[in-house]
Amino acid sequence: MAALAAAITHAAGDADERRRRGRLARAAVCERLSWSVAVAQLASVLAEVAQCGGVAMPVR
Fold first, then answer.
1. Is the pLDDT of residue 51 over 70?
2. Which residues are CB-contacts of 31 (< 8 A; sequence separation ≥ 6)?
């Protein structure tokens, strides 16, 4: 636990490290939560529904 606390304290106190982590976090969020990703996921679900002919499918 002490190692984790030390790592967090170091990261919080280092401006360059905060910026680096911020850039990485932003990139990860944009990659996973962008409109293009949401549209692709929705299109996949709609295609799956269309293939089953409107028959109720079990929830995954």
1. yes
2. 37
From residue 6, how far is each of 1, 13, 31, 34, 42 by CA, in Å? 9, 11, 30, 34, 42
Task: State how far the Cα of 42 lies from the Cα of 53, in Å rounded to an integer.
Answer: 17
Place of tokens 């269309």: 50
Residue 25: pLDDT over 90: yes
pTM (2 d.p.): 0.53
In Å, what is the CA distance from 54 to each residue of 4, 18, 40, 44, 51?
A: 51, 49, 20, 15, 8
Tell me if 8 sits within 8 A of 2, measured CB to CB: no
